[in-house]
């Protein structure tokens, strides 16, 4: 189990994914989790809570994950926050493109709620 106490923002347009991820990260991982349903809200939440990491959906309406990452990198206080993408698209070209954009890691949907916290911790180098 990952060390708790980290602040994580989950940005995903699917309410069920947000809820499952939030419960998994808080109940299993002991993290403080904040959620947002789109990129604009995600930026607002991230500015407010100053997260230790952001779990970001790739495909969302209006602002997709890569454009949200670009906006995050333009905000000085959020520039260094590690971003882990969450996607159902898992082709090697897609993963390579997300890595090139500055993603720390790419986790796939559907994910196992019981292992999400451990996978996130491993991707970020947090103590497990």
Automatic annotation (TrEMBL):
Residue stretches making up the Response regulatory domain? 7-124
Q: Output the Pfam families linked to this UniProt entry.
A: Response_reg (PF00072)
The protein's UniProt keywords, in alphabetical order, are: Phosphoprotein
SMART domains named in the record: REC
Is Phosphoprotein one of the keywords UniProt gives this record?
A: yes
**Cross-referenced SUPFAM superfamilies, in alphabetical order?**
CheY-like
| Coiled-coil zones | none
Q: Which CDD domains match?
A: REC_RR468-like
Which residues are annotated with the PTM 4-aspartylphosphate?
A: 57
Biological process (GO) annotations? Answer: phosphorelay signal transduction system
Q: Which InterPro entries match?
A: Bact_response_regulator (IPR050595), CheY-like_superfamily (IPR011006), Sig_transdc_resp-reg_receiver (IPR001789)
Which PANTHER family does the record match to this protein?
Answer: RESPONSE REGULATORY DOMAIN-CONTAINING PROTEIN, STRESS RESPONSE REGULATOR PROTEIN 1
Its name, as the record gives it, is: Response regulator receiver domain-containing protein
